[in-house]
Amino acid sequence: MRTPTSILASFLLLGCVAVGNIHAAEAGGNKVTYTRLADDVKGFEKLGVVHGKAQKAFGNQEKLREKAIAEAQAEAAKLGATTILITVDQFAPTPLNNVTVEAVAYGPGKGSTAVAKEEKPEEKKEAVTPTDPAKIETTRLADDVKGKTKLGIVHGKAMKSFGNQDKLREKAIAEAKAEAAKLGATMILITLDNFENTPLNNVAIEAIAFK
Q: Is 48 helix (H, G, I), strand (E, B) or coil?
């Protein structure tokens, strides 16, 4: 007959195994890059649609989004994908704060070599000269960054109880610019700008840094 202690021990062991599997899946998924720009997957082979979700009571939308994307990346990795194109990114506070992500998984295809190289600027191993965040331009138009070099994805967030969303957005963009400046960027292309009021007014920004 199993004692309460042995039952608890078995439960904890199963929990540890489950957590380990989750981390392993995330580790594999994180090798898959993600983008919100269709031009980035031109020439790639479409492998299928993947999904990710995350929820938590009063959860921070940026952290939930990060976890949901990681789940989609892990699913894409099983298909042999190298990148995912996010097509749906939805935050909702019902009944728990949650983010749902849907993306298309892509693998290297005919004509994708040039794009693949562009996706990995870190391999160039060039010395980075930080720029002045105040001089970094902001755009929401993809045409404005044509011909520029992609440096990476940056984020910004700001929250305050009853905070004015314009002020919060300004602060979040400034945070993204500060992150981009460390990469030597001269411009950021905002690809996500989301305002929510759960439980505090907050703005989450995601952008691509270019020079």
A: strand
197 falls in which pLDDT band (50, 70, 90)?
confident
Cβ–Cβ < 8 Å for 79, 105: yes
**Contact criterion met (CB below 8 Å) for 191 and 206:** yes
Pairing of strands 137-139, 187-197: parallel
Please give the pLDDT value at position 3: 53
* pLDDT on residue 134: 96
SS3 189: strand
**Sign of the C-alpha dihedral computed for residues 195, 183, 67 and 199 taken in this order:** negative
All domains in the chain, ordered by first residue:
32-119 (3.30.110.70), 128-211 (3.30.110.70)
Q: Cα separation of 169 and 179, whole Å? A: 15
Tokens of 161: 């109880």
Can you tell me the distance from the alpha carbon of 139 to that of 124, in angstroms, rounded to the nearest whole number?
26
- From CA 80, how far away is CA 68, in angstroms rounded? 19
The two three-digit tokens of residue 201, written as one number: 């007014």
pLDDT digits (tens, 9 = 90+) for 71-124: 999 999 999 999 999 999 999 987 899 999 999 999 987 655 444 444 455 555
